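User: Can you predict the 3D structure for this chain?
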Amino acid sequence: MKRTRRVLSSLLLIALMISLCLIAGVYIVKVVRDRAEQQRQAEAAVEETVQTEDEVEAEASQVEQQAEASKAEKVYAYRGSSEDGLYTMAAYEKAVEAGAGTIAIPFVVSKDGTLYVADDDYAESLTGYGGYFSGMSDGQIDSLETKSGTKVLKLGDVFDKFGKDVRYVIEMKYTSERNMNALREMLEKYGNEESVSISCQYFRGLRSLESSLPDVQKIFICQDEAAFGESRNLNYIDTIAVSRDFMDEEVCRDVHEHGKKFSVWTLNTEEDIKRALEIGADSFFTDEAAIAVGVEAGAAE
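Assistant: Here is the predicted structure, written as structure tokens:
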């Protein structure tokens, strides 16, 4: 009897152990499956997040491309806009809002070496003050107001405002070594040479910048036929810009045959702008950005 009880006890113990092992096995399998499912869900969530981020980036890129495509690339907004004070931030903002892809900005250099937006070193035409920007400190210039009642813009202010959202034609009115060095330093500081072209009416100025800024596009502002004839054969000039009175289909063709781009200044009527586009001008300067953008858009349709 006792032997039988021991056998039964042993069998019950074995059965209990087997049951426990089975329960443990089931639990382990469940844990493994749960972890596998959690891992799968986590990977799926990561993949979905990556896809979402990719979609967002793709959408942002598409929006940027559409915005870029909507800009009037041939329009060089000179002085910003005639409706606002010349060379003011409001004028440039209005030109960019209208769709101009490029803004043209002349500069002068203060006694401290800072580039200010103005087309004449003599401050009277812009501010009413009878002094020279080149002889004034930054503090003196900053204390002046333009005739529109705004501060005199620094070139850096414009770069900070628009960044690389637009292109710039920087007009070098004065070609002293001091001015050219100040311009070089400014472009190096902002690192935006790829979005900048330099225009000048003097061969010397463009030639001097060729060694230090070889990749920056250079625009020659042509004042007469003699200069035009010479400019066609100068390899450091990329674009020849002629006056409205010199705008002609044959002149444009001649420039293109010499491997250069053709531009015209300054066109402010629909008639003149349409004529420039018809003869094949690659760009044109204007004070009427909104009108010019509309005409270019109409010509492209």
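Residues 1-70 form one domain. Residues 6 and 25 are 28 Å apart (CA to CA).
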